[in-house]
Amino acid sequence: MRYVQSQTLLSILIFDALLALILLASVLQTLSCKFALMFAAVIVPTKTQDKLVVLDLSNNHIHGVVPNWLWNSTLLRVNLSFNVIDFPKQLPLSDLNFSFSMLRELYLESCNISSFPEFLKSQENLEYLELSNNKISGAIPNWVWKKSLRYLYLANNHLSSLEQLLPNQSSNFSQGPFSFDASSNNLSGPIPNWLCKMSRLGRFDVSYNSLSGPIPNCLGNMSALYSLDLQGNNFSGMMPKFSKATQLSFLKVSENRLEGKLPRSLAECTQLEVLDVGSNKMNDTFPFWLEKLPYLTVLILRENRFYGQIKHFKHKSVFPTLDVLDIASNQFSGELSIDFLQPTRLRSLKIGGNKLEGKLSRSLANCTALEVLDLGNNMVHDTFPFWLEKLPSLKVLVLRANRFYGTISKIDTKRGFPKLRILDIASNNFSGDLSIEFLQSLKAMAEMTNDEKATLDYIGENYYQDSVTIVNRGIEMLYQKVLTILTCLDLSNNSFHGRIPEEIQMLRSLRVINLSNNGFSGEIPLALENLKDLESLDLSQNELSGKIPAQLTSLTFLAALNLSCNQLEGSIPQSNQFITFTNDSYRGNPKLCGLPLSRKCNEVSLPMPPPPGEGEDSWLNALSTWKIALIGYASGLIVGLCIGYTALNELGNKWVDKFKKCGKRNRRRCR
């Protein structure tokens, strides 16, 4: 309540200051009040209305009806996004001065609008209309296409028919280049062929709908088309030829059911920057014929049926501008050579889920811009690539499910891995102790600054954001976007042994630790209590002994715990997050007791009956002795013990925009 009052007071102060400014500035042309915590629209005097050109009231708490003067002033650009406002369906003719209908750009994103605003009929010069993230349904009125619109954005609404959205064959729409975005709606059915009559169509985005059928061949003949995004639908058949789409810069058709080969005509699209055909059924070899495209930055072929060796026989660098190469989950084989890539440009290399073998290419050490290296689920046979530690920008290193072997000891602690936040070397043949030098080399997993924690940045650029699969809570999860604050250490399914070093506490920013399925022994380190950001801890399938440290209850962010299949003993801590864990967290530890296990810590096993031949009196005497002992225990019990705890905020998966379960890991069985 105190926050609301202070927020309201601040809004009043800001509003008064703005009003005073407006009254004084009769020649004011631009007024921006975004993020000003305002609860009412600004009332602009008539003298100022005649001069105002740009008005930005976005990201406030404005409710109510927009004043009529907005639509008959000299305004060229109005931004009312992220408010809850009402618009009159029609404006009285007496309130309109058509000579002042100069509005060119109108932004109404996230304004809780449920129908297409008909008042826009009077805005004859409107070119840019942003209506994304609303509740609009039905058809786009025909009068929209009679205007000068060049940008129409309707993403994330309730639209269902593409036929009702686009102008029909008789439309006189010819302005361009025209940009149209109806992504993340409920669109279904095929793309109408007459779409290609929109000769000035420049950007067409209908991604993440339920559209089906083939992609019209005529789309490849549209000379003005520079961006085509059809990903996340049910399109089938082969990709069209793009022989005349000479301006095409962005082509995204991933997550469909396309098949066949990549059209060789793409080599003629000399402006192409991003090509994403991932998650389809395409069957082809590696497209070295794209090597001369001068601007190709992102090439994504993941989750298809591409095959063969990846080897450039001319032994020279090609793909001069390639930053991202993702060929994961295909059928590529043989040894991987990346000599055909420009080492100083490559930022993300994902080659996991293939049949690649041999040693890891040492030329990777020259990729000084590399941030993400994922070669998991191959057959690479090598030692730990400590020589990658000199890469200044490496943030994600995934080596899981290969044939790496040996100890991890040749680590330069002075250089280390300065930016590495996610290290996954699970399911290999690494052995030996978990060395202190190795932990000291993971410098980026040490405590982050408050500024770093407050910055919710993703790994990647605006045109492409990296994803990574991480075993969290015993399940493989695909993180479609990876926050830079996500830190993970997965050493599971190897042959490490010895004690878990207390020095693991140095990695204070760790969110996920998985040391399961190894041979670690000794007690659980008390130092784990210092990892205050820890959300998932898996120490299962080891040889750990002793008690569960009560200090671990201070890890209030801990949402997943697995200590099963060890040699732990004693009572289970009973406070904070530990109250939420189930039997599965502790199974396979026969000497553990207390909730949630059914085994109570005060239970005492009765002696076995005497073997044949011993006297009956000795058995009765022993039984009498145990009766006395049981009476003593019973008198000390406290009946009706109540355990109180504070419910924590839902932790969930704070960095996961979208995840999928890929199946539980195979574990050794224990009881």
TrEMBL record:
It is found in: Cell membrane. Pfam families: LRR_1, LRR_4, LRR_8. The keyword 4Fe-4S does not apply. Its main location: membrane. It comes from the Eukaryota. The keyword Transport does not apply. GO terms for cellular component: plasma membrane. It is a single-pass type I membrane protein. Keywords: Cell membrane, Glycoprotein, Leucine-rich repeat, Membrane, Receptor, Repeat, Signal, Transmembrane, Transmembrane helix. The chain crosses the membrane at residues 9-28, 628-648. Belongs to the RLP family. This is Leucine-rich repeat-containing N-terminal plant-type domain-containing protein. It comes from Gossypium barbadense (Sea Island cotton).
